[in-house]
Design goal:
The structure holds two protein chains of two kinds. The longest helix of chain A has about 30 residues. In chain A, α1 packs antiparallel against α10 and α2 packs across α9. Chain A is mostly helical. Chain A has eleven helices and two strands. By secondary structure, chain B is mainly α. Chain B is built from 15 helices and two strands. Chain B has a two-stranded antiparallel sheet. In chain B, α2 crosses α12 and α11 packs parallel to α13. The interface between A and B is large, with 37 and 38 residues.
Chain lengths: ~280, ~325
């Protein structure tokens, strides 16, 4: 493997890994705070991509307003989903998982009927390439990397330093004790759903110009999110970042050597993690 | 109890006599499909009875289907031997997977089963030489004649899957009444408590998982030889989700929930013929409605209606006092 080629693989892996981290951190946030495996999370990602496509293509707005609007729309959708479907099953473990599967099926089933089954595409925001140590890197990919890092830093800052973030951590530790301190558990859950869904929408929006947009992206995204959170540790956001980066790099390297078999690597890592370190790389019991 | 037994006997009688009066292949196909699902879905309920949620049941159906197809087509097995053997192979894989993953509490088992189902499907897809790749294995032979009954048309298949379902049903009822069934429900109520009275919960979880997957394997084997085709298309994550969904729609609390759920969910898409793309939406809506309106599943519907009509007036006090 030549050095420029190595850089190329590394950048691809970094981009893939950061988008996995972006999808998985929202998923992990919900599990960490609400103890809910939100299978609909992948569908929110898919809808984020479609929202961006529709806003750019049909409304003719520029990409950045599309990115912002997609995040807002998907966040609202997340809140509506919470009130309609998740809230009634809030304290029941298995039923909440099943209702999340139902919501995922509903959105995933409606999407091809509404949007059509065809692949759509969003025109690139930053066409062109840069030369870096002899490797040719597309600006679009670098843009995705930068945006993903900004969003992840913003999320970390939000959870660490804002009052809402503190409330979230308190609810994650012990909802009853948090409620006794005057923290509204319900409103915390709503904010958590909004943030997590906005992140999924942002991920969909960021990847829309790079890949095709179609109604079947959701399942793929939620499978990746599951793989990443198990590797990193369920409920841990640093874990989601670490797991995402690891999976992205492994897949990027795997793609160059294994081709089609790469998809299996993630699941093999999951099985190994579960056998040797069940709490995940950065998780704790 | 006895009234219950008479109902079961009558249903069985009707099912046995059914092809004497109705030979319409379309209707028989619905019943055969119901039987295929019910056999697998009973397995899901068995696994659920130990408090584990499986999201990868279709993988074990796939293992059954492919094992059986390969045993018959490449190793020259008779179908009648391949059927139980493919169930055993599925159970063996379940043992290997279950041992490390059932150890971990909480949702990890659900996630791993989900991940494993994807691995199986991907292995099928990327191994075209042996497993047929995305095209699957076409031309899986129908079962060889038994007692000089040839397997042509739907009727022999109907009786075969009916026998398989009845055997599965008897095993499930047997387990529920035996000591093992009581241990299962003790684990379901709370594993810490069960463990503290000296139950090896790991052992029983693995037993339930392997047995559940055995029936998935048998169901998959029948599936391949009935449709003469084994394809990765059938064994996606969503098929696994359907397995779980059928239990919940039918009713996880009763041994009659899985066949009821399978029948209902096989029947409903038939009303939407030609519009297969609506299936996931319809299934999702049914699931959501059942979870909100009938949390015990369709099997509790008669009870619900009776109580609404006011027959249950005497019982309300008993319910309130908790007896």
């Amino acid at each position: 493997m030549t050095f420029p080629f190595f850089i190329q693989v590394l950048v691809n892996g970094l981009m893939l890994g950061l988008t996995y981290a972006l999808i998985a951190s929202g998923f992990s946030l919900i599990y960490g705070i609400m103890r809910l495996l939100n299978f609909a999370h992948g569908e929110f990602y898919m809808l984020g991509a479609f929202a961006t496509y529709l806003i750019c293509d049909r409304l003719g707005l520029n990409y950045f307003s599309a990115l912002f609007l997609s995040m807002v729309v998907i966040a609202l959708l997340g809140v509506v989903t919470y009130y309609l479907f998740f809230r009634p099953f809030r304290d029941q473990h298995d039923p909440s998982l099943v209702i999340a599967l139902g919501v995922a099926m509903l959105i995933g089933g409606l999407a091809p009927l509404i949007f059509g089954e065809k692949d759509q595409s969003v025109s690139p925001v930053f066409p062109g390439v840069v030369q870096f140590f002899g490797a040719t890197l597309s600006l679009e990919r670098i843009f995705v990397i930068v945006m993903a890092i900004i969003l992840m830093l913003a999320l970390t800052w939000f959870i660490k330093f804002t009052r809402t973030g503190q409330a979230m951590r308190a609810v994650a530790q012990d909802p009853e004790a948090a409620a006794l301190q005057g923290i509204g558990v319900d409103s915390t859950f709503v904010r958590c759903m909004a943030i997590s869904s906005a992140l999924a929408g942002a991920a969909g929006s960021l990847l829309a110009p790079l890949f095709v947009v179609n109604p079947y992206l959701g399942t793929h995204a939620v499978v990746k999110a599951l793989v990443v959170v198990v590797i990193g540790g369920l409920g841990s956001i640093p874990g989601a970042v670490a797991g995402g980066l690891l999976l992205g790099l492994v897949e990027s390297i795997g793609n160059t050597f294994l081709g089609g078999a790469t998809e299996i690597l993630g699941f093999v890592i999951v099985m190994l993690v579960l056998i040797f370190r069940p709490q995940g790389l950065l998780g704790h019991d | 109890m006895t009234k219950n037994r008479i109902t079961i006997f009558l249903i069985l009688l009707i099912l046995v006599a059914f092809p004497l009066f109705v030979q319409d292949p379309f209707i028989l196909n619905i019943l055969i499909t119901t039987g295929i699902w019910a056999t697998a879905v009973w397995g899901v309920r068995l696994i659920m009875s130990t408090g584990q949620l499986t999201l990868g049941h279709a993988a074990y159906m796939a293992i059954g289907a492919y094992a059986s197809s390969l045993l018959v087509m490449k190793a020259g097995f008779s179908f009648w031997l391949a059927l139980p053997v493919s169930g055993l192979i599925a159970a063996l894989v379940a043992l290997l997977i279950g041992y490390p993953t059932l150890r971990i509490k909480g949702v990890y088992f659900a996630i791993t089963s989900f991940a494993f189902a994807e691995i199986i499907r991907l292995i099928i897809m990327i191994w075209p030489g042996f497993l047929g790749g995305s095209g699957g294995i076409p031309g899986v032979p129908s079962p060889s004649p038994i007692f000089s009954i040839p397997f042509t048309g739907r009727v022999p298949f109907y009786y075969l899957i009916l026998s398989i379902s009845v055997v599965t049903y008897l095993v499930m009822v047997g387990i529920e009444r035996s000591r093992i069934g009581k241990v299962f429900s003790a684990i379901h109520e709370g594993d810490d408590l069960a463990q503290s009275v000296g139950i090896n919960i790991m052992k029983y979880k693995v037993i339930a998982f392997c047995l559940g997957c055995f029936f998935a394997g048998v169901s998959g084997s029948f599936y391949a030889h009935y449709f003469n085709f084994a394809s990765p298309e059938f064994f996606t994550i969503w098929q696994s989700v359907y397995c779980l969904l059928f239990v919940i729609v039918g009713g996880a609390g009763s041994v009659y929930g899985p066949p009821l759920g399978s029948f209902f969910m096989t029947l409903v898409p038939e009303f939407l013929r030609g519009t297969k793309e609506y299936e996931p939406v319809v299934y999702a809506v049914i699931l959501i409605l059942v979870m909100f309106l009938l949390p015990g599943g369709l099997i509790t519907l008669p009870d619900r209606l009776r109580r609404k009509k006011g027959y249950g007036k005497v019982d309300t006090k008993a319910i309130e006092s908790g007896t």
